[in-house]
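Quick one, probably user error.
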């Protein structure tokens, strides 16, 4: 059942198109809502196209030998799967097929199988512990990663599941982040806690948790600053926020989600390293996979860090952030049908 069915009018309100508006003229065909698989495969189209073109060019007229395996490894590295992962995948593909003709489709199927195998251990849903009221999620990530928008989309999902939500504008450095989160709160019917620009973020986090506890809110989502260039200052601010939160709940935050922009490619690795040190990241959300031909970075991250990947995003729409499924991602990145 979709979020729209569960909570009538929610998705319309999110985009300023409530059900109370007049219907479209009769001559206009209603927009077809694409399935998640279709949106995922379209979103990963640039990555799949680059990989697929490389595979086709290599294997259409050549058998699988040392040279073709090296060429395949280069294609995978260019898609940002990383040297180590690309090497493992190529070795697995060549193990039973060496020195014989293989079709591009056979190579794509083998690629999908190996990518799924690499991703399966990290494809873990975000579990909201209903016994914790509120379940506190600290959202971290560099500015421009899509963090604030992701918070809004998560709020919409939780509201669609019937949960109460409070949003806390903990990125007090940027007025735009505060305003953007306020809009999401209004659109999703979530509670909202904010202070003026430049206010103490730790005090804001304390107030937000206090209010959410009093209201018996199910989920509290706390935005944070993302000024990674000032790493020590950010580390101190986040540590102070956590200390403030733990004055009220010693176990909080219950999840620390790092939002990553797929278009930054290999830079995502350094971001994970930094935020794991700064904030104790418990899981990942990857956005903007539709904007890059290097979507393989998710595979590289899984292999290097083993952190749970809870959600991926392939567009700006409210439905374009969904729980991560290893098989779907692997088949989409290889350019295969849903299967």
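Nope, works fine. Designed sequence:
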């Amino acid at each position: 059942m979709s979020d729209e069915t569960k909570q009538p009018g929610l998705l319309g309100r999110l985009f300023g198109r409530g059900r109370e508006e007049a219907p479209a003229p009769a001559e206009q065909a209603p927009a077809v809502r694409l399935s998640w698989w279709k949106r995922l495969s379209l979103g990963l189209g640039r990555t799949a196209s680059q990989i697929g073109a490389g595979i086709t060019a290599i294997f259409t007229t050549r058998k699988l030998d040392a040279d073709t395996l090296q060429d395949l490894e280069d294609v995978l590295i260019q898609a940002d799967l990383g040297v180590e992962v690309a090497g493992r995948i190529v070795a697995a593909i060549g193990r039973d097929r060496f020195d014989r003709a293989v079709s591009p489709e056979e190579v794509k199927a083998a690629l999908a199988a190996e990518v799924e195998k690499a991703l399966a251990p990290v494809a873990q849903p975000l579990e909201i512990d209903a016994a914790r009221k509120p379940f506190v999620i600290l959202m971290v990530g560099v500015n421009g990663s899509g963090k604030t928008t992701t918070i809004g989309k998560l709020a919409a999902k939780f509201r669609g599941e019937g949960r109460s939500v409070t949003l806390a504008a903990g990125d007090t450095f940027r007025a735009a982040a505060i305003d953007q989160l306020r809009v999401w709160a209004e659109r999703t019917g979530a509670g909202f806690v904010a202070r003026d620009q430049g206010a103490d973020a730790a005090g804001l986090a304390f107030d937000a948790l206090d209010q959410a506890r009093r209201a018996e809110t199910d989920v509290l989502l706390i935005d944070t600053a993302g000024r990674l260039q000032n790493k020590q200052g950010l580390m101190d601010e986040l540590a102070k926020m956590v200390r403030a939160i733990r004055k009220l709940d010693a176990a909080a935050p219950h999840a620390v989600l790092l939002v990553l922009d797929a278009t930054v490619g290999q830079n995502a690795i350094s971001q994970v390293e930094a935020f794991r040190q700064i904030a104790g990241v418990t899981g990942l959300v990857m956005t903007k996979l539709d904007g890059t031909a290097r979507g393989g970075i998710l595979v590289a991250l899984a292999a290097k860090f083993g952190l749970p990947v809870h959600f991926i995003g392939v567009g700006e729409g409210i439905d374009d952030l969904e729980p991560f499924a290893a098989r779907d991602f692997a088949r989409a990145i290889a350019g295969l049908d849903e299967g």
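The longest strand covers residues 255-261.
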